[in-house]
Amino acid sequence: MIYEIVILAMIAAFLGMRLYSVLGRRAEHEEEPIPTRFDKGKQAAPRAAAPVHRQNVPLPRAAGVVPAVERGVQEIAAADRYFDLTAFLEGAKGAYAMVLEAFWKGDRETLRELCDDDVYAGFDAAITAREEAGETLDNRLIRIEDATIHSASLDGRRARIAVNFVSDIAAVTRDSEDNMIAGSLDDAIESRDVWTFSRMVDSPNPDWLLDETDEG
Question: Might you report a single GO cellular component term (predicted)?
Fold first, then answer.
């Protein structure tokens, strides 16, 4: 009898160790963070220079994009499997707000991170002229009414997407003594801008840079 109890106890212990081994490995695996290309401090490995051809696989239609620019959007999506139009537009609206705020405040460091050389040079010259005149801007972005794709193209490995922004902005200019010399914070003015963002589709950096600004 005692011998049978010992045998059963050994079998139970063995099964318990097997169960713990399986579940333990599974739990450890599930707790591992899944790396993404947006992880802070991490960059995805460079993707192949050749475009990703999706022959015989229909690309999803770009919702909200007029047919004239849909082809460009689909070419970018075919070359960059990470591209998502909805996420791009949300990021573009965030960049629009950040660039405006940085320009109004004279924050050259932020502008340097978000703009290419030509656009940055234009902003820098305007900030310098404002500083020399002793003027400051007390502008407020009230809301972004709309953001739609104006054009999209893939030139070699460089993707360029122009976004038409419609926004309400309250603008005030003050002199060196903080006196209001132009504008009003009570009356927002509708602003229409077409900003073009670009990115090399095979770059490990997921960020798009502002490379052109025009009035809408």
Answer: membrane
- Here the tokens at position 13 are 């212990």
Residue 7's DSSP bridge partners are none
Contact 210, 114 (CB under 8 A): yes
Q: Residues 80-93: pLDDT tens digits?
A: 988 999 999 999 99
Residue type, position 31, single letter: E
Q: What is the DSSP letter of 34?
A: P
Q: Residue 40: what residue type?
A: K
Give the H/E segment covering residue 95: helix 85-105
Q: pLDDT tens-digit profile of 25-61?
A: 333 333 333 333 323 333 332 233 333 444 433 444 4
Close Cβ partners of 146 (under 8 Å, ≥ 6 residues apart): 164, 165, 166
Tell me how far apart the alpha carbons of residues 27 and 5 are, in angstroms, rounded to a whole number.
32
DSSP per position, 40-80: TT--PPPPPSS----TTSPPPP-TT--HHHHHHHHHHHHH-
Give me 101's structure tokens.
Answer: 């705020």
Domains and their CATH numbers in the chain: 64-215 (3.10.450.240)
